[in-house]
Amino acid sequence: MLRHVFGDRFEADVDDRIQIVAKSQSNDGVTDARFEYDRDTLPREVISGLPGCTFTVRDGRKQFQAVVMFAAGAGSSARYDLFEVDESGGLLDLGRSVTKDDGAALVGLAVEGVRARVAVGATRGVRAAAPEPAPPRRKAAKKKAARKPAKKTAKKKAAKETAKKRPAKQAKTKRASARRRIVTRR
Q1: Are 78 and 27 in contact (CB under 8 A)?
Q2: CA-CA-CA-CA torsion for 154, 158, 161, 162, nearest 10 degrees?
Q3: How far is CA 11 from CA 5, 51, 60, 129, in A?
Q4: What average pLDDT does range 137-150 have in this prediction?
Q5: Long-range contacts of 52-55 (CB under 8 A, 24+ apart)
Q6: Statement: the pTM of the whole predicted model exceeds 0.70
Q7: In the prediction, which pLDDT does 102 show?
Q8: Strand partners, 10
Q9: How many whole angstroms separate alpha carbon 54 and alpha carbon 16?
Q10: CA 140 to CA 134: how far, in whole Å?
Q11: Which residue has the higher pLDDT, 145 or 10?
């Protein structure tokens, strides 16, 4: 069953079967309508002697519309009203209509397909579904600990001091050999 939300918006449970008819008044006996739901043309039916259609509600907001035919000699008061057919075959006024004066032969409404809500008392004897797992947590980024200077061992200290002495010693050797060359050239 359609539930009126506001204006031209209605809602129904997804997969509900809906029947809608178009009833004409003051239209010189002409009753003709074609129906579309979610851009699909619906097969024409005669329900309770009126042009109608049947559709299954889809998830999300979908457009329903009826294209009606006005008689050429009908007055400006000619109109079509949309009705939903209830389970017992009665007609429920949807409050949507179009008149010949409107200048358009189109009347529509939006049907919002919603997932059925489960009543609290209706769950007796039914096992509850397992809760959905929580989304995985992000691991916190580990901060790198500042490195502490390592304690220098005696061997490392000695190696370092030797490395410092080598360049100085090599420089002295180079100077000495350069002097020898100068002396020998003379």
Answers
A1: yes
A2: -170
A3: 7, 23, 9, 26
A4: 60
A5: 52/19, 52/20, 52/21, 52/22, 52/85, 53/19, 53/20, 54/17, 54/18, 54/19, 55/17, 55/18
A6: no
A7: 82
A8: 4, 111
A9: 10
A10: 17
A11: 10
- Edge-first strand listing for the sheet containing 91-99: 45-47, 50-56, 17-25, 79-85, 91-99
Identify the residue whose tokens are 């809602």: 11
Task: Return d(Cα 64, Cα 36) in angstroms, integer.
Answer: 6
- Which class is domain 3-116? mainly beta
Distance CA 111, CA 1 (A): 11
CA distance 104 to 126: 51
CB 20, CB 53: distance < 8 Å: yes
Query: Which residues, in sequence order, are bridge partners of residue 21?
Result: 52, 83
Strand partners, 33: 68
- Residue 46 is predicted with a pLDDT of 95
Rg (CA), the chain: 45
The Cα 66–Cα 59 span in angstroms is 20
